[in-house]
Specification:
The protein is an alpha/beta fold. It has two domains: 8-161 and 299-350, 3-Layer(aba) Sandwich (Rossmann fold), CATH 3.40.50.2300; 164-297, Rossmann fold (3-Layer(aba) Sandwich), CATH 3.40.50. The protein contains eleven helices and 14 strands. A hairpin with a 5-residue loop joins strand 11 and strand 12. Helix 6 (164-178) crosses helix 7 (195-208). It is elongated, with a radius of gyration of 20 Å. It starts with 10 loop residues before the first helix and ends in a 9-residue tail after the last strand. Residues 61-318 form the Periplasmic binding protein domain.
């Protein structure tokens, strides 16, 4: 079961931190990325970290989310942009309006031309973005994946919201508790290529092989493509195709909101358990009207803030991405780089009727 994270700060505690100021930052100039010796990715990893190096002023970094019209990713990127203002850098968000596999490629190429210091990417496909990302790295641009990883061969760090294993297994446990460990279940995912969802689903499937789930059966993984309408229709399709369905896990904030909306207005309300990963603001009405009992998430503001500081630490030479390196992410404190350049924010948090009003994101 998910537990409260020590890093999880309530909306109340965060008042004033996120002002969406889009750090205008006049007067600072960035070092030209092209004036640095083009470092091959392998050489970057072998560089030596200087934990005491100051964060360089005037850094230019860009967030490239899966898609720009996803409220969860908007919150996350805004927090990262605000963090850049704290360390006197300039950050922006650019990205596609759909989460298809290759939709981010042209944006990466433009960011390379702009000589950004770092590109932060929530990858729609682990491999489709690899060529351009490695081209960026060969020009001295640091690449940090966040939320949804790119292949580890083409990024320097991955800022993960939580242990992927914990997310996957906990989602199954949460649903199982609500359906007495019995019945047919389905997953409503994002896109078929999404690295984060696919990793979580693998752990869900593995969790389901344990004896305590012998009476539960995963009948289908459907894909709503992180598109509200498609997710809504896929939910309808699942319920029509599997009349005995007992529960749906939607490990996507877009998917769970659409699934809850469909169920809420249908004859299935109260008969089907909908759970997964959602934002409190999108899920509140469905918790209040009894469609959803509980769901989970981490704090997207903290994830964006951490990713921003991680990128700045990388560009400033405080860390190189090697396992065991430590860095301070502003108000969130110290983090350690784990295996394969992964940095974990912390455990997710469970929302229900007792706490959903305490949060505003
Ligand atoms: C959606 C996206 C995102 C994922 C969240 C939980 O917003 O798919 O990548 O992390 O859900």
């Amino acid at each position: 079961m998910f537990t409260s994270s020590r890093r999880f700060t309530s909306a109340v505690a965060m008042v004033g931190l996120v002002s969406l100021g889009l750090s205008g930052c006049g007067g600072t100039t960035k070092e030209s990325a092209s004036s640095q010796a083009p470092a091959a990715p392998a050489q970057t990893a072998a560089a030596t970290a200087n934990p005491n190096a100051p964060i360089k002023e005037g850094l230019q970094i860009a967030f490239l989310p899966k898609q720009i019209n996803n409220p969860y990713l908007t919150i996350l990127d805004k927090a990262g942009i605000d963090a850049a203002a704290e360390y006197k850098g300039t950050a922006k968000e650019v990205g596609p309006s759909d989460a298809s596999a290759s939709s981010q490629v042209s944006y990466i190429n433009t960011l390379i031309q702009q000589q950004q210091d770092a590109i932060l990417i929530s990858a729609n496909d682990a491999n489709a973005v690899c060529g351009p990302l490695n081209q960026a790295r060969s020009k001295g641009i640091k690449v940090v994946s966040y939320d949804s990883d790119a292949s580890k061969d083409c990024r320097d760090l991955f800022i993960n919201q939580a242990s992927s294993e914990d997310v996957g297994r906990s989602e199954v446990k949460m649903l199982a508790d609500m359906i007495d460990h019995k019945g047919e279940i389905a997953v409503l995912s994002a896109t078929a290529n999404a690295t984060n969802q696919n990793t979580w689903i693998e752990f869900m499937k593995d969790e389901l092989t344990k004896p305590e789930y012998k009476d539960m059966k995963l009948v289908k993984v459907a894909y709503g493509d992180d598109d509200d309408q498609k997710s809504f229709q896929e939910t309808q399709g699942l319920l029509q195709a599997y009349p005995n369905l007992k529960g749906i896990i939607a490990p996507t904030t877009v998917g769970i909101a659409a699934a809850a909306r469909y169920v809420s207005g249908s004859k299935y309300k109260g008969k089907i358990v909908v759970t997964g990963l959602g934002t409190p603001n999108q899920m509140r009405e469905f918790v209040k009207n009894g469609t959803v009992e509980k769901f989970a998430l981490w704090n997207p503001k903290d994830l964006g803030y951490l990713a921003s500081y991680a990128a700045a630490s990388l560009v400033s030479g405080r860390i190189t991405g090697a396992e065991g390196e430590k860095f301070t992410a502003g108000k969130l404190g110290e983090f350690t780089v784990g295996k394969d350049g992964e940095v974990i924010l912390g455990p997710p948090f469970t929302f229900d009727a007792s706490n959903v009003d305490d949060f505003d994101f």
